[in-house]
Amino acid sequence: MKATLRYLAGIAGPSGFGSNSTAEQVTQDFSSLLPSNLTALITGATSGIGAETARVLAKRGVRVVIGARDLKKAREVREKIQKESPHAQVILLEIDLSSFASVQRFCSEFLALELPLNILINNAGMYSQNLEFSEEKIEMTFATNYLGHFLLTKMLLEKMIDTAKKSGIEGRIINVSSVIHSWVKRSTFCFNDMLCGKNYNGTRAYAQSKLATILHVKAVARQLKERNANVTINAVHPGIVKTGIIRAHKGLITDSLFFIASKLLKSISQGASTTCYVALSGKTEGVSGKYFTDCNESNSSSLANEESEAKKLWNETYALLHKRLRQAPN
After folding, report:
1. What's this protein's family per the entry (predicted)?
2. Rounded to two decimals, what is the model's pTM?
3. What is the largest distance, in Å, between two alpha-carbon atoms of the chain?
4. 127, 200, 206, 318: which is the annotated catalytic residue?
5. Beta bridge partners of 43
6. How far is CA 304 from the centre of its chain?
7. Is position 200 annotated as part of the catalytic site?
8. 167-218, pLDDT tens digit by residue?
């Protein structure tokens, strides 16, 4: 109840920011202190929170690489960014996160650019009311929101560690999750069932994928710590924002609820604030394996906090990718 009142009132937390803070506001005070030549890679930055994250980071002098499925939309985002910030460096590369082959191709193209990689923002996400499958015959929501980002992170992690070592600047990985991860029951969180979309329900599948992104954070944070790598990884809940994913929940009830609860919804800039804060703030230096909401460290569900569950999911995912990628034709 106290957290709800704090959210509604926009009361700032320990970071000095709260639910009403925008992405520009949370990055304004320390923008002049940022190291030069930072490079951030953002998936799903062609609309909504991702596009706003890209705009604000570019405005703060960060080189932005946008991984997008729709390059036409990506070019439009780049034009808007460069119109506001003429000196902004925005690079576009095609990626379909539901496709292992596409993720591999994207990583090869990015690494061929020989750029540093300081910040990786796994932002792209989808929601589907109907059961769909990727080209690898994996349920589409799980494939896109979780598996694609798992593979992307795995393939770029050494680059991030190397960049941090050479530059002395901490690398940061941000997984965009959702508060609805807490809706997932242990009895329904089964890796093989999620792969095949057993007893499919769109909202449950989305929630499961977002729980998986937090468990991914927990597992990778532990690995980075064991390696003494100067890279952190955290999960963020952007808040409930009426973006394309939310609009996928079509229907009279949904529209009516949005009308009634309009005061509870964040603007897109408010939704992007936590991602930008965790990516750039000096206050998050050295913080890893955590979950942030409204620009402040918060509590995820008990299931999301289980190290054993995180390790189990990581092992299952690694085994799946190893098998599928080994079988893929050259």
Report:
1. Belongs to the short-chain dehydrogenases/reductases (SDR) family.
2. 0.92
3. 56
4. 200
5. 67
6. 16
7. yes
8. 999 999 999 999 999 999 999 999 999 999 999 999 999 999 999 999 999 9
